[in-house]
Design goal:
The chain is α+β, with helices and mostly antiparallel strands. It is built from 3 helices and 9 strands, in the order E-E-E-H-E-E-E-H-E-E-H-E. It has one domain: D-tyrosyl-trna(Tyr) Deacylase, Chain: A. It starts with a strand and ends in a 6-residue tail after the last strand.
Length: 164
């Protein structure tokens, strides 16, 4: 499971001209579910997103995670994060690593529900919709997080992608 998180001053999601989610200062997390992901990866990624210390304290240092604040979280499903480049396909991305839509929706919804239960200040985009995401990146500060199945990586969570 992949989470591309950005510290934002504000962000919102429009679908068909209607704003369906909106946050102020906090984190915007683009989420991709990969085909071998399970609830374990949901738990690992959510723990990392809520605890990742990228929100600034009164001195301007990145010392706080969402769990330490009442800052907001916007989760946006984005299967294209699972795209891989292969030599065989040249410049066309391959989505072979992405979960099927049914599984992606199930695990994304699970991530959202657990985030609401753990943090409360959570909004979400619409799975499978053509979304227009608008944000003001604060910093800019953008971080790539992954929770990979232990069988595939030998570890649980990593922050740097390694593709074979």
């Amino acid at each position: 499971m992949i989470g591309l998180i950005q510290r934002v001053s504000n962000a919102y999601v429009d679908v068909e001209g209607e704003t369906i989610a909106k946050i102020g200062y906090g984190l915007l997390a683009f989420i991709a579910v990969e085909k071998y992901d399970t609830e374990k990866e949901v738990d690992k990624l959510l723990k990392r997103i809520l605890g990742y210390r990228v929100l600034t304290d009164k001195t301007g240092k990145m010392n706080w995670g969402l769990k330490d604040t009442r800052c907001e979280l916007l989760l946006v499903p984005q299967f294209t994060l699972a795209a891989m480049h292969t030599q065989k396909k040249g410049l066309r991305p391959s989505f072979d690593g992405a979960a099927l839509p049914e599984k992606g929706l199930q695990l994304f919804d699970s991530l959202y529900q657990q985030a609401v239960n753990s943090h409360g200040c959570v909004q979400k985009g619409r799975f499978g919709a053509d979304m227009q995401v608008t944000l003001t990146n604060d910093g800019p500060a953008t971080f790539l997080l992954e929770a990979v199945p232990e069988e595939a990586s030998g570890s649980g969570v990593k922050t740097k992608r390694r593709r074979k």
